[in-house]
């Protein structure tokens, strides 16, 4: 009887721990990331590298140590719309949880936008600014994806203001974007979408009535207005209802700032109840004789706005790979310290198989994204040959990274089992947030159509393909890949001679194949002694993915090879 009463689970089970006692999470998302550090060190000039390392390390520590708690709090306490005050006065105010403002303040303090827009840096680090800004945005995105949207919109708005407003006006507003004083900081937004068209912006109906040379009054409803409380709003509207399509659209600046107290009504109908990115306010807005300033000439609005859209698509790609990287690391660290069936979870063959796939997808998308960003810097440095290539690459990289992120984060969640599904951790939040990435800034179908148009109108894809062929020719054993690429290009040529519906119907698969070949070529060009640990197995994975006859029986990748591929120091 005594033995029964003294029964203890400890007599049956050796442990009840989820992870081993020495489990540790990352303390710095920059210092730990060998792939990012290696790439940026090669990419930046010595002056930039010396300057930016401290910022990247400081933000990397903040993202790893502070931002999770703030991010989860802001997600669980989304903004609220207050239409009236105690006395019934119409105030139309959006109120954010303190955690949201703290997250935004971290972005301001670490200079994610000032590093691109402060006059000193623009002069001193010319032609490297996009890579500098996006390197900080990537680290930030590993900690928080919701606030990344306002940062993206603000960066895009600054681009438009800088290029298309008179210098005195652009300077007045951009000073508030690169400010180090959070209380003086302005964010930007672009209001495009309406009920009538959605992605079909040419169906927009909001009207702009001219008052004088620069001033107009806006009337009508915008259906999806992200970062709804932005101080700088760029709005597409139609100056002449008789001019249909995007040709009739003009671009307007609506300020909600102390500089202008006479702005007409802008009513928030409601805040959207979104599945993800809940920390950030997305609203339905009705303009009622809202005072606005035209940007550029009438009828040029959509053309001007595409500059902001293209930059936003690169932001979308950076946040996609950042979220995927974060969740991969969450799963990897868990698997390193989780014991199952008598050994570490990382050592199980099927776990290694999945991590090999996920790491390969990440590495391929990482280099595709960053080489595209580098081309944007080169274009702005005057190298015009990159313009046509970017016209093809930007929709391509946006689609590729967004879809990979959604798939990859879900797979990371499964690798962690039930623990990955718990809202106490960050993976469910990243999962919900990632689902918008294939939708925002143009759906995946729109990206395919955009790539098809770019292919038909310019030489960008031909240049990219030639670069890819050069890389394949330089690496031995790629004869089969070259032959298969030429076959895919033959299918692409067919799209030029068939009717439009047939071309659109078949373009998705063709461009997805071409994207993979471009990634393959980029990886061949990027491989060196250190990066071979993650690039070489990724090249092998891509070759298998592109093969018409895939090997079903393969030698397992070892635990040591997986560790080198993930390339992460705890």
Q: Would you give an account of this structure?
A:
With 570 residues, this protein is of the alpha+beta class. The chain has 20 helices and 11 strands. Strands 3, 4, 5, 6, 7, 8 and 9 form a 7-stranded mixed β-sheet that branches. Helix 12 runs antiparallel to helix 13. It starts with a helix and ends with a helix. InterPro entries: Acyl-CoA_dehydrogenase-like, Acyl-CoA_DH_CS, Acyl-CoA_Oxase/DH_mid-dom, AcylCo_DH-like_C, AcylCo_DH/oxidase_C, AcylCoA_DH/oxidase_NM_dom_sf, AidB_N. Its cofactor is FAD. Keywords: FAD, Flavoprotein, Oxidoreductase.
Q: How many DSSP E strands? A: 11
The description of the largest β-sheet is: 7 strands, mixed
- What quaternary form is this? single chain
Radius of gyration: 25 Å
Distance between the termini: 50 Å
Number of helices: 20
Shape field? globular
Structural class: alpha+beta
Given as residue ranges, the uncertain stretches (5+ residues, pLDDT < 50) are 4-9
Mean pLDDT: 94
Percent in strands: 5-15%
Fraction of residues in helix: 40-55%
Family: Belongs to the acyl-CoA dehydrogenase family.
Pfam families: Acyl-CoA_dh_1, Acyl-CoA_dh_M, AidB_N
Keywords: FAD, Flavoprotein, Oxidoreductase
Cofactor: FAD
């Amino acid at each position: 009887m005594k033995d029964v009463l003294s029964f203890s689970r400890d007599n049956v089970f050796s442990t009840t721990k989820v992870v081993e006692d020495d489990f540790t999470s990352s303390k710095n998302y920059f210092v730990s990331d060998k792939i990012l550090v290696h790439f940026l060190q090669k990419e930046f000039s010595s002056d930039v590298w010396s300057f930016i390392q401290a910022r990247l390390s400081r933000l990397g520590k903040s993202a790893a140590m502070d931002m999770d708690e703030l991010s989860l709090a802001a997600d669980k306490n989304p903004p609220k719309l207050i239409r009236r005050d105690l006395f019934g006065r119409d105030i139309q105010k959006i109120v954010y949880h303190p955690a949201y403002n703290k997250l935004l303040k971290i972005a301001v303090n670490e200079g994610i936008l000032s590093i691109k827009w402060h006059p000193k840096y623009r002069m001193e680090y010319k032609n490297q600014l996009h890579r500098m800004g996006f390197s900080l945005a990537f680290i930030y995105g590993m900690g928080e994806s919701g606030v990344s949207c306002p940062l993206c919109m603000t960066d895009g708005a600054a681009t438009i203001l800088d290029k298309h407003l008179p210098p005195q006006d652009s300077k007045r507003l951009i000073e508030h974007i690169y400010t180090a004083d959070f209380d003086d900081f302005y964010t930007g937004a672009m209001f495009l979408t309406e009920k009538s068209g959605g992605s079909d912006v040419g169906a927009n109906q909001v009207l702009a009535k001219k008052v004088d040379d620069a001033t107009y009054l806006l009337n009508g409803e915008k259906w999806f207005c992200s970062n709804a409380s932005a101080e700088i709003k760029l709005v597409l509207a139609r100056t002449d209802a008789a001019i249909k399509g995007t040709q009739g659209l003009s671009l307007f600046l609506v300020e909600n700032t102390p500089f202008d107290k006479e702005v007409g009504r802008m009513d928030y109908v409601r805040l959207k109840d979104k599945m993800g990115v809940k920390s950030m306010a997305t609203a339905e807005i009705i303009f009622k004789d809202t005072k606005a300033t035209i940007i550029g000439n009438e009828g040029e609005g959509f053309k001007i706005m595409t500059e902001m859209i293209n930059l936003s698509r690169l932001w979308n790609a950076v946040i996609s790979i950042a979220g995927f990287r974060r969740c991969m690391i969450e799963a990897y660290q868990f698997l390193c310290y989780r014991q199952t069936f008598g050994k570490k979870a990382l050592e199980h063959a099927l776990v290694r198989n999945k991590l090999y796939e996920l790491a390969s997808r990440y590495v391929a998308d990482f280099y595709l994204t960053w080489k595209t960003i580098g081309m944007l810097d080169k274009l702005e440095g005057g190298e015009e040959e990159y313009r046509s290539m970017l016209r093809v690459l930007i929709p391509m990289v946006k689609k590729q990274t967004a879809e990979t992120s959604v798939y990859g984060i879900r797979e990371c969640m499964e690798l962690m089992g039930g623990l990955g599904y718990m809202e106490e951790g960050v993976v469910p939040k990243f999962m919900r947030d990632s689902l918008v990435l294939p939708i925002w800034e143009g759906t995946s179908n729109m990206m395919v159509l955009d790539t098809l148009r770019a292919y038909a109108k310019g030489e960008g894809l031909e240049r990219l393909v030639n670069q890819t062929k050069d890389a394949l020719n330089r690496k031995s054993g790629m004869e089969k890949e070259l032959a298969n690429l030429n076959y895919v290009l033959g299918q692409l040529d067919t799209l030029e001679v068939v009717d439009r519906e047939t071309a659109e119907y078949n373009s998705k698969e063709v461009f997805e194949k071409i994207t993979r070949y471009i990634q393959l070529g980029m990886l061949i060009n990027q491989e060196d002694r250190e990066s071979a640990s993650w690039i070489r197995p990724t090249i092998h994975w891509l070759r298998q993915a592109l093969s018409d006859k895939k090997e079903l029986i393969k030698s397992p990748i070892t635990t040591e090879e997986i560790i080198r591929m993930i390339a992460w120091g705890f």
